[in-house]
Amino acid sequence: MTLRTGHIGLNVTDLDRSLAFYRDVLGFGVIAEGKEEERRYAFLGSLAGDGRPVLTLWQQAQGSYDKARAGLHHLALEVDSVDRVREYETALRDYGVDFAHEGVVAHREGSASGGIFFHDPDGTRLEIYAPSGAQGAPVPSAAAPTCGFF
Fold first, then answer.
1. Do 85 and 128 form a contact (C-beta atoms < 8 A)?
2. What does the pLDDT read at residue 37?
3. What is the DSSP string of 51-87?
């Protein structure tokens, strides 16, 4: 048996705020939503796809993301091209998102893959990248992979 990722669950402090970000800015569709006051959640995915959740938001966090605690390091989302990465960058800038690096950066020195690194409304670290097309993009640090320390 080979394991594969089914979906990723993120704890959030404010479901409405996070849902607006993941739905309206990143383009996820809402597959299902729990609206009970103490049990609010949203299953997100592609409505054009098979209806399987990709990301689940659970409103149960009491504070923002803490990179010093064990758990999720970052969530990387892949797109087909660096042009598509730049489209997301524009939408995220218009939304006022906090970026870790300026513009598209390569994953490491000489890498063809690269993307943008930013934070969601709760500070969770996110990446949107393309597997190729980032040749020649700057590298924030030659000593470590770009996605490792932001």
1. yes
2. 86
3. S--SEEEEE--SS---TTSSS---EEEE-S-HHHHHH
